[in-house]
Design goal:
Strand order of the largest sheet: 4-3-2-1-5-6
Helix content: 25-40%
Structural class: alpha+beta
Order of helices and strands: HEHEEHEHEHEHHHEEEEEHHEEEEEEEE
Strand content: 15-25%
Shape: elongated
Largest sheet: 6 strands, mixed
Mean pLDDT: 95
Number of helices: 10
Radius of gyration: 22 Å
């Protein structure tokens, strides 16, 4: 199945966003970040999207106008040669000068902001990044269908991993096999994130103690990486026997992400780590059952922490020595969407939220065990969208 993005879908997104703009008392928002622009228009071209608080949007394209007209699902698409033309186009589109304009200030470079300020003298500019992230936080049926397809892509890739694993080869050897298969299935090869200075490739593959090595990763796991320039994920070190092999590789279908982690091994890992893995599965199951509409995200984090404490594993839960303060995060067009299932998160769950739950335990001298699946919040709890078996997958030596 290849679900198609429709004009009706884009109109629904714009309408929900415009309601938020109206409540803020804004005249409109100027959208420049590629992911937000795609979400609200259907194209990822070099463009700006003017979204008035009411009425149709205006897409102003620098490159490529032809491709934007082919892909975009908004009616008004105009070419611009430079940023200086944008105020004139907006004035002509709306017929009046703007007093209050929204910008994506969480991702907008300061230099670009200063340029906009010069272009719109007398216009007050406010941050609408929270409003667009809240709009994107609840997924439509179309979006959920894309995440489901990404989940199936991930399942197919993970089914191949036992055959890809050969003792004595390196972590990098495993990554290029998995990445090659993903690309053959239509993965675009990128996993967009919103976080500043956080680049994500497909994810992380690492083995043994290297999986627990500290790094700049925003998640609970690390990896040695290839050196100080990219100090996380797979290294050139060889994969050995009887140690956990972490595969945390996200799939991407039509731009939508499914995040998945499984633990493999060549031979059998020790009983203590196996027990920790079972605890992670129990935590995931409990959180998924309790994750119903109206439940506060922080209460699910507290539930997970209490279960790790009861198992005597709290000090190894979600990172060591510096654990991350969450056990789940939203996914969609970006890897780090809202809501966050974490400490202090007051978000109330709603039907249609898509969340990756990732309870993991880190042992600095041995490695990482745990799980990650992508779920959608439904009326009676969270529905899992991945189907690959969750137990540690032992690859028998020849």
């Amino acid at each position: 199945m290849n679900p198609l993005l429709t004009e009706e879908e884009i109109r629904g997104r714009l309408s929900r966003f415009q309601i938020r703009l109206t409540k803020m008392g804004l005249d409109g928002a100027l959208i420049a970040q590629k992911t937000d622009l795609y979400y609200l228009s259907g194209t990822d071209q070099d463009a700006h999207l003017w979204v008035p608080a009411s009425g149709p949007p205006l897409l102003m394209v620098r490159r490529s106008v032809e491709r934007a007209r082919e892909d975009a699902l908004v009616e008004e698409v105009v070419p611009v040669k430079s940023l200086s033309q944008i105020p004139e186009y907006i004035h002509g589109h709306s017929g009046k000068d703007k007093g209050l304009m929204g910008l994506e200030m969480d991702v907008l470079p300061v230099g670009r902001y200063l340029k906009y300020r010069d272009l719109f003298p007398g216009v007050k500019m406010v941050d609408i990044s929270k409003e667009i992230r809240k709009t994107r936080m609840v997924k439509s049926a179309y979006e959920i269908s894309c995440v489901e397809e990404a989940g199936l892509m991930a399942d197919r890739a993970y089914e191949k991993i036992p055959a890809f694993l050969m003792q004595g080869e390196t972590e990098i050897d495993l990554t290029y096999r998995v990445e090659g298969f993903y690309r053959s299935q239509g993965h675009p090869g990128v996993i967009p994130t919103r976080g500043f200075n956080y680049e994500a490739l497909y994810g992380q593959i690492s083995s043994g103690w290297r999986s627990a090595a500290p790094s700049n990763s925003a998640g609970p796991t690390g990896g040695r990486g290839l050196g100080p320039f990219f100090s996380q994920g797979a290294s050139m070190e060889r994969i050995g026997p009887n140690q956990p092999i972490l595969v945390d590789y996200a799939a991407n279908f039509n731009g939508y992400i499914s995040d998945l982690t499984r633990i493999f091994s060549i031979g059998r890992i020790d009983q203590g780590m196996r027990r920790a893995h079972e605890t992670a599965l129990a935590i995931q199951g409990a959180v998924a059952r309790q994750g119903k509409p109206g439940v506060r995200a922080e209460s699910l984090y507290d539930l997970a922490m209490s279960m790790a404490q009861e198992a005597g594993l709290e000090s190894r839960f979600m990172g060591y020595p510096d654990p991350v303060p969450f056990i789940g995060h939203g996914v969609g067009l970006e890897l780090d969407e809202w809501p966050v299932i974490g400490r202090g998160s007051g978000t109330l769950l709603r039907e249609g939220m898509v969340i990756a739950l990732e309870p993991k335990f880190i042992f600095p001298d041995r490695g990482v065990v745990g799980i990650e699946n992508t779920f959608v919040v439904e009326k009676d709890g969270m529905k899992k969208l991945n189907h690959f078996p969750e137990e540690i997958f032992e690859v028998r030596q020849a």
